[in-house]
């Protein structure tokens, strides 16, 4: 493994890039946001994730590309929740005044410390102070990124000194061929239900069956013409690691399996690209549907929804979340 300087933040902090390789796969990981900047499978000439070739886009429109988001991934309605009888006002960073991915300066915007590293793995850590972005509790986060047998895995743990919402997620955009679009990809998700959303992409509160709807991906379906930014309800609580989603490209013959411990999977098909400043490793703009995010996480707005699986990390507990993306040929 190698570590190299890769840029400088506006406040002068250095961003480093870690080069990991093992199990037939290579990854470049930034200390900014624990971003997976590049991911390659041996024998495949193109990257399997959307990423930029320089730091600047990650400080702007690509801030979530390949990053770890949190301390609460996805949206919290109105930037506010009540826990243990106390109402907390959060950083609001979306139209409509909601809190997205931990606020204006979430885990994706911070420099993570390198705790340990080896050729095929690295351990990073981050401290989110009490009151940060309005959230209670000093939260200590540890992430191990590891490569093995054609897979990249993300193993998160966290503790807190005050009860707090906690949902960390890898926000990579995946693509399995070199067409510049996921239109020819096929997706399967092992979910019987999903969360309908309103105009702000917030859950309406309904937990709806996927049967007889455009959200039924229980059998593989083409992503041509599909626009998703929805949570698929996998389970009612965190469970042992198990496969939950499958993606493949008949064009390239590559396939990916997603396994996770988490109760939800947010599927986002990059509906809002192209966007100014969103460019690939060679500086070329990404087109609409250039990749797909498969974000294992707690259900969105869970802190305000007592009927959703509980996403509270309590004092004395340890949050533990594992997600693995495995690649193979059809």
Walk me through this protein's architecture.
With 330 residues, the chain is an all-beta fold. It has a single domain (2-329), classed as Distorted Sandwich (Beta-galactosidase, Chain A, domain 5), CATH 2.70.98.10. It contains no helices and 27 strands. It has strands at residues 2-8, 14-22, 25-30, 36-41, 67-69, 75-76, 80-83, 86-89, 99-100, 113-118, 121-128, 139-148, 151-160, 164-165, 169-171, 173-174, 186-189, 193-194, 208-209, 221-222, 229-233, 242-249, 254-260, 264-268, 292-297, 312-313, 319-329. Strands 10-11-12-13-27-23-22-17-20 form a nine-stranded antiparallel β-sheet, with no helix packed on it. Strand 22 (242-249) and strand 23 form a beta hairpin. The radius of gyration is 18 Å and the shape is globular. The model has no long low-confidence stretch (mean pLDDT 97).
Layout of helices and strands:
Elements: E1 2-8, E2 14-22, E3 25-30, E4 36-41, E5 67-69, E6 75-76, E7 80-83, E8 86-89, E9 99-100, E10 113-118, E11 121-128, E12 139-148, E13 151-160, E14 164-165, E15 169-171, E16 173-174, E17 186-189, E18 193-194, E19 208-209, E20 221-222, E21 229-233, E22 242-249, E23 254-260, E24 264-268, E25 292-297, E26 312-313, E27 319-329
Antiparallel strand pairs: 1-2, 2-3, 3-4, 5-15, 6-9, 7-8, 10-11, 11-12, 12-13, 13-27, 14-26, 16-25, 17-20, 17-22, 18-19, 18-21, 21-24, 22-23, 23-27, 24-25
Keywords, please?
9-stranded antiparallel sheet, single chain, 6-stranded antiparallel sheet, 330 residues, mainly beta, Beta-galactosidase, Chain A, domain 5
